[in-house]
Structures are given as structure tokens and as C-alpha cells.
Amino acid sequence: MNGIAGTRLTFSDATAKVGKWLVLGFFFFFTFVPLIWLLLSSFKTNLELQMRPFALPAVWQIQNYVNAIQISGLPRLFLNSVVVSSVSTVLTLVVTSMAAFVFAREKFPLQQALLNVILAGVLVPIIALMAPYFRLTNALKLYDSLWALILTYTAINLPISTFLMHGFMKTIPKELEEAAVIDGASFFQRFSRVIFPLSRVGLVTAGTFVFLFGWNEFIYALLLTSRIQSRTLQLGIRFFVSQFFTDYTSMFAAIVLTIIPSIAVYVFLHEKIIKGLASGALKG
Amino acid sequence: MFLSPALILFALYFVYPLGFVFATSTLDWNGISNARFVGLRNYLDNFQSRTFQISIRNNFIWVASLGFVQISLAALVAMILARQPRGWRFFRTVYFLPNVISQVAIAMMWAALYNAEYGAINQFLELLGLEHLTHNWLGEIGTALPSILIQQVFYIGYFMIIILASIMSIPESYYSAAQIDGANVLQQEIHITLPMIRPILVTAMTLAMAYGLRHFEATFLLTNGGPAHRTSVLGIQLYKMFSALDYGHANAIGGTLVIIGLVLIAVIRSTLGRHADASDMTQ
Questions:
Q1: Could you tell me if residue B2 is inside a domain?
Q2: Residue B185 falls within a domain, yes or no?
Q3: Residue A2 — very low, low, confident or very high, per pLDDT cuts 50/70/90?
Q4: For chain A, N or C: smaller number of CB within 10 Å?
């Protein structure tokens, strides 16, 4: 029995173990504790927030949430975000799956060059295009409407969604369409009856991406709308500071309410979301 | 005809805007009245402006912090979780959680945490008797930029997930062979894991650096570039110039962003992307 080697091994094992749990613990703390602080604070009075910051609320102030909904206009913000995100998702998927189908199946001059140009759009820092998007939206007479955001988000997601759909459609065997052609299917029918239904996985991947983009987008919501009626959720959050003024805990309640839908979806679908991301990463 | 909607949108929202940005970046123009051609003057003005210099420096700090620090941390955590310690699925789920919450909500939460009066961070320091360490985190020149950086860099979830997936696709036999040869955990990670995940690390770094270049939301909401422009980035400057109807200088910033982005990608590809091909075969 080699005593020295044995000790050394356990020593390094112990350090590694402590180090490992320190790292995991640190990131857990950083990710989770602020959220819990926000949640607990949202049930406190403003005095408690100052005086007893790390205690549980003495009385759980449900009133904060009532204030939050009344002051912030959350239902409208929420509805706008749902409309903008879903419509832009549907539009993006329709437009890019059609384009991806042509790129994956047809041959025409400059096809590869055209595809590359569209895919290169991924590299454009969209933030650099504030001025032209503002002018374009005005020229289309869409400024300060939900359509301004829907169209902008659809266009911004064109390259990434084309990339995902094209990558997916290339993996669908051509034989399936050939059978349909023999049965007399037209070009459009090949797309709508064969390829589109078979692309479900690709559509879900691209759709999730586009939906989350629309749900979380801030800069162009800020730039292309002005009235309260056309604000999305993310833009609305920015105005909480002025709306709630010094009623911090009601503002926290409003922020919590904006987070809840995302967390609820995540709690149910986290395995799927993580798996989808992971498999996308391996392919890309 | 199937292509036309995509092509029209692409022309309107990519081709025209890029042309517009570069064309107007050479003009002295407020967007309404007559424009005057000034060549590269706007670019020169920008590079001589102190605020622009601070902004571009900060963008590079963002690029480096996200591209190197955040990705290294994500890779470290991914390596730990790939060995499936107790509760690894739980940690994976929690670490990714902030990625499903919007940047805006996260930023508002951190504004509250950093707040000098009621923020949890100062209160926590006071609780520990460390009053002398309390700061007006977002209001002081020394602490503002680090505060915003930390708030982003430690959210490793997204990159951790894709790196973790890549590590877990490495065949188990590689590790057991190394174990028989007497390689310890650290040696295994350095000689097996790192080379195998190199392509995904390059991809992750490229993405993270692109985010660093485009950074806007958290700074806009936490400090709006203050105090004294110390946290400003190009996106914030562009927004301010554009709001002041200074199309020429604003779009010169936009043009600079596009060019830096392309150069950055070219540099990453040529320095780090070399070995990507060899490892692609394993997938």
C-alpha cells in the first residue's frame, strides 16, 4: 500500500470536490437568489424593503399586485406582445419555409450566391440599422403600430430562419416528393402536402427562436412606437420606473408578473427547450 | 415566385438599409433638409470625439468579457456538469433560467439590486458590517461599468448548454482509455475535452463577441451610458445621435459597427477556426 500516493490522491480529490461545489454553488446563488429577492420584495411594504431586506414579508402584500396591474396597464402590454410575437413568427415561418424549399430543391443561376447573401444577413449588427428602419417604417406609414414591429421582426429573422429551414429541408429525402410527383402533384402541392408537414421539427426550432426574439425585443419597440397602446411588454417595463415612482415594491410586483409567463412555460418545457438547443448546437 | 416575399423583405430590410447607412454616413444631414456631402468627415469627427472613444473602448471590453470570460466560465461549468455530479440536471435547468427571461426584466431587477438606497447588495454589505464597501454602484465612475458587465457575464446558461451538449457527445471510450493510461480528471479535460469541443467554442465565442458589439439594452436601462459617458457603448451613442437627428454621425457609427463586426468575424475565423475541420469529422 502506497501511503503517500494515497494521501495525495485524496487531497487533490477533496480540493477538486470543494472547488467543483463552490463553482456550482456560486452560479446557483447568482442566478437564483436575486430572483427570489425580487419575488419576496414584491410582497413587502416599501418600509419593510428598507428596514428588513432579507426577512420574509410580515404580511404578504397582495395589494402590490393589484396596484401593479392597475398602474402598469399590463394586460394591454401583454396582449400586444403576444400579437406581435405570434404574427411575426407565423409570417417568418411561411416566408422562409417557401424560400428554403426553393433553395433546397430548385436549380437556377446564382442560386448559391443568392442563398449566401441572404444567410450573410445573420452577420449584420441589426442595431446599426436604426436610422434606415425608422425611415422605412415611416415610409410604409406604419410608425407607432404593431405592424411596424411585426414586419421588422419578420425581416430581421429572415436570414436565421432561412438558415434553419434550409438546413432542415436538405435532410428530407427527395424520394418522398418524387412519389408525389408521380401522383401528379404540382410544385405548390409538393411544398404544402409533402415538405411543409415533414418540416415540423425545423418549423418548431425556427419558430421558437423567432417567437422569443419578438417577445424579448426592446430596441426597435423603443424606436418604432410611441403611444401606450402600441407598447409591447418589454418596452412597457421601461416605463415602470416613472409610472410607479417611489412605490418600488409594486413595481417589483409588475416585473414579477412580466416574468411569470416565461418561467411557467420554462417549467413545463425545460427538458424540450434544452434538448432542442443542444441538438441545434451539435448540427450547427 | 415562392422566393419573392423573402427577396422583397430582404431587399427592404437588409440591402436598402445597409446602403442607406453607408451612403448617409458621408453626409451632413438632419434627415429633413438638404444634405451636404462631407466624405469621411463624420468618421473622423467620431474617432476624435472623447465619448466615441470611450464607447468603442467599452465595446471592446464587452467583446472580451463575453467572448473570453463568459465563454471560459460556461466551458468550466459545462465540464463539471458533463461528469454528471449529483443534481446536474437541476443545475443545468436553473443556470439556463435567466435566458428565458427578457433582458429588460433582468436589467430592471439589477437596477433594484444595485440601488444605493434600498438595493439588496448594499444592504447585504451593511448586514455583514462592511459599510465601507457600499457604493452607489451604477452612479460612481469606478463601479458603473463593472457592475453592468458582471450582471451579464455571469449569466452563462445559453453557452453552457451548447458546450455541455457538445461534451456529452464525446464517446465515453475516449475517457476510459485515458483513465487506463493514468490520466487524471484535469489531464482528461485538457487533452480530450478541450480539443474535441474546439469548434463549438469558436462558434460560442463568435456569438458572444457579436453580442458584445451589439450590446445595448442593459446599459440603456441601467445607466444610459452615464455617469459621464463612462459606460457608453456604440449602440447607445448611435441612439443618442439619431435621436438628435444627426444622421451623418449616427450612421457613421452604424457603418463602423458593421465594419468592426465583419473584421471581428474574419479575425476569429483565421486565428481560431483553423482546426474546426478536423473535429467536424467526429460528428
A1: no
A2: yes
A3: very low
A4: N
